[in-house]
Every structure is written in C-alpha cells, then in structure tokens.
Design goal:
About 30% of the residues lie in helices and about 15% in strands. The chain is of the alpha+beta class and about 450 residues long.
C-alpha cells in the first residue's frame, strides 16, 4: 500500500464511520485499533464497532430528535445505520441490534476494503504532519489522553457510565412474564416482569442496602444523568424507579387486566433470542449483590447472568475550548476529533461525529470548503453544542430538542415543525456540499 493520506486512531463507531467516508472516496488510510493487543475495562472482543453498553440505538420516529438524527445519518450513507438495519432485533419503536452480528458486519466491511490498512496496536502519539482523526472514544488510553491534554493545554474531563445485566433467556420464569411494548397494542417485542407494591417495596429496600463497587476511583463518581445506576436513582425517592426504568405506564398485565405497580422490561439481546438485557437497569452493585437483589423480581428469581452490570470511567475533552466548528483541533490543522471524546453522548451521536470528521478531513484533501449543517438539524445542533465557546460548564450531551432551535409553530405542531425544518435545512446543506458528497 502507498503512504496513507489519513490516519484514524480508534476503531469504534466514530472511527469506523470516518474510515467508511474516506475509503469510499478512494482515500488511502491507516486505521489504528489497539484491541486485542490491549483491551479496555469494558470491551470483550477484537471486533470493530463493538457495543459495550446497551444494544439499543433508541427510537427511529422522525418526530423525535433521535429519529431525525438517524434520518440524517442515512442521508449521508452511514455504515452504522446500514449495519443496524441488517442486524436488527425486535424492540418496538427502538432500533436494537444483535451486537455480535452488528460489529461483525462493520468489521468485515472495513477489513476487506482495499483503501484501508489496519494497525492492531496502540497509537499514543500523534503525527501532526499527517491528517489524523482521533476517534478513541470514552475509553481512550491514558497515554493518548495525556498526549492530547499536553497539546491542547485543555482539561480532561470524566464521567462514569454503568452497564445493564444480560440474562440467559432459559432462566427467565415465563409464568411471571407478559410480552408487550409500552406504546403499542400489537407489538410483543419486550418481556415485562411485573411487580406488586409489596414486591417492589422489598426490592427497593434491598437495592438501597446492597453492597456496591467502592473502588477509590468511583468514590466521587459523576454519572451521566441519562444513564444513572438504578441504586443511585433509587436514592431520589421511593417512586423514582417507578417513574424511571420500572415505570408501568402503557402496560397492562393480561393475567390481571390492570396496570402493574412496577415493571422491569427485558429487551432481546440477539437474533437467536436466547439472551435478554434488563432495560435501563444500569448498576454498580457487586456481582453477588446483583444476583441476590435481582432474584427478588419474581420473573428473575432463578436468573442466570450472561453479563453482570458494571461501571467504567469515560473520558471526554473540553471541546468548546479546543475545537473549531469543523471538528479540527484549534491550532492543529491536521488533527480532528470525533465521537464521544468530543463530548457527545450516545452511540448514534458518536457515529454521526465520525461521519462529519471524515467529511471534514475529506474536504481538506480535496480543497473544498467545509461547513457543518445548520443547528436546525440534529447533526448540526450537536456540532454547535460541542463547539459553543459560551458554554461555561461543558457536559456530555445526547441529541435532544433542547439543543435545537425552537420552531415558530403552535406547541401542538412543534415536533412536526422541527422535523420538517430539520429535513429542509439538511437537504439544502447537502446541495451546498454536493462537490464533497457526490451522489450519497
């Protein structure tokens, strides 16, 4: 292979998307992924784009911010979206995947591409003379994170992320389960584990008193608000879980004909249907305590755990202080950041930033001016958020309507108006970027 034109560090969702953008345009590149020679606290395989937390990419409804983001990614030829649709498992209105099939699809696509040279080694130093996209994600190695901090004089920031347990389907007591989706009368994609008031009260009492992982680095842990461990959420009040991951709204138990007091939902983990994830049940309880407390749920009294819940530290950078609007590192024209290290939170948000970093680097190679789409779009609003210098206290952010402009429309039509405006602005932006995007 000839000398690479671009280097990508990190083979997660963002790095995979950036590699896909550049390779399909004939750019020769090196893709560094340190696994399996060096693993992270959360990864289990050597596959590119391995999903370490949930297997859900959230909703697809174009009247929601998550749905708008997916629509825009599909409009840019997203590899992650293609893989997700090919490996989808039943999950109601959510887009969930068989995580092994998903990562295998992306790995095979990129490993077989003639424009990509794969380096299975850690890259801890950045060559400022070669266009480089850093997409190392929230589990960036300490060596590279320290190097980034040294060249940006910026602060490394952290938050802690928790993972939900995965249950062997054969160990679920189906006599205490009913199949239904919360907002559909016909879908049976979720298994629901109902609890009475007495059962819930006992469960809550034991959850609050259970032993937790107390490693020193976790003692002052700052958790991402949208991914709080259940035991942390439970401290907010007796009904906090019943208004959160254990909410019974929209569900009726056919055995009783009424709404349960509380519900644990299980979502299929793979295409075979032999494993289920506890939806929204992130936890840092010790493994013996997880088994003890979760067994208080009638349907899971004999549960076998294929994966226990866990917690890991995520790294991100103070992007508003160090990033240009095109995801280029301020003062370093050849260095781009992508994915969760920029401060976006979520699978699709990270992948979208990988697409945009790839396009930004491609524009530089082709001598084309690159500008992001407007903030009325989902992708544009994320890029605007992570590069907004006026933010005094920067925190990770999912895509949501709160970071998109309020449309000039009656409240009852705001979702439709947002979706329509986002589509209009996005399509207009694509036309201005036609020399870069081609027929995508």
């Amino acid at each position: 292979m000839k000398h690479p034109e671009v280097r990508i560090i990190g083979g997660g969702l963002a790095g995979s998307e950036a590699a896909h953008v550049l390779a399909r345009n004939g750019v020769l590149l090196e893709l560094f992924e340190m696994r399996p020679s060096r693993m992270t606290p959360a990864h289990k395989t050597d596959l590119l784009a391995e999903l370490v937390c949930s297997n859900s990419f959230k909703g697809t409804d174009a009247l929601t911010a998550h749905g708008i983001l997916k629509r825009e990614m599909e409009g840019l030829g997203s590899l992650v979206m293609s893989a997700a649709m090919m490996t989808r498992v039943p999950a109601g209105k959510a887009l969930a995947v068989d995580r092994t099939s998903f990562a295998s699809f992306i790995t095979a696509h990129l490993m077989n591409h003639s424009s990509i040279t794969h380096r299975r080694e850690e890259c801890s130093l950045i060559d400022g003379n070669l266009p480089t996209i850093i997409a190392t994600g929230p589990l960036t190695s300490d060596a590279l994170a320290q190097h980034l901090a040294s060249i940006t004089t910026g602060t490394r920031l952290f938050f802690y992320d928790a993972i939900s347990p995965i249950i062997d389907a054969g160990s679920i007591d189906m006599s205490h389960v009913f199949a239904a989706s919360r907002w559909s009368d016909t879908s049976t994609d979720y298994l629901n584990c109902p609890m009475s008031k007495i059962e819930y009260s006992r469960f809550l009492e034991q959850l609050l008193s259970a032993d937790r992982v107390q490693a020193r680095e976790f003692e002052d842990a700052g958790f991402f608000e949208a991914c709080l461990p259940v035991e942390v959420l439970a401290l907010r009040g007796t009904d906090a879980l019943r208004y959160g991951p254990m909410r019974p709204v929209g569900l009726h138990d056919p055995k009783t004909g009424s709404r349960p007091y509380a519900v644990i939902q299980l979502r299929r983990e793979n295409l075979r249907g032999d494993a289920y994830t506890m939806v929204g049940f992130q936890t840092r309880l010790t493994h013996p305590e997880q088994k003890r407390v979760i067994s208080l749920i009638p349907a899971l009294r004999n549960a076998r755990f294929l994966r226990f819940g866990s917690i890991h530290r995520n790294t991100y950078l103070d992007s508003p202080r160090i990033l240009e609007s095109d995801l280029r590192l301020r003062g370093h024209r050849n260095i781009y950041l992508a994915g969760q290290i920029t401060g976006v939170e979520g699978y699709m948000e990270s992948a979208a930033m990988g697409i945009m970093a790839g396009l930004s680097a491609l524009a530089e190679l082709k001598g084309i001016h690159f500008s992001p789409p407007g903030p009325e779009t989902a992708i544009g609003s994320l890029m605007s958020y992570i590069t907004d210098r006026s933010l005094e206290r920067f925190q990770p952010m999912n895509i949501n309507f709160g970071i998109m402009p309020l449309p000039d429309a009656p409240k009852a039509r705001r979702a439709e108006a947002r979706s329509e405006e986002a589509l209009h602005v996005f399509e207009a932006w694509k036309q201005t970027m036609k020399p870069l995007l081609g027929d995508v």
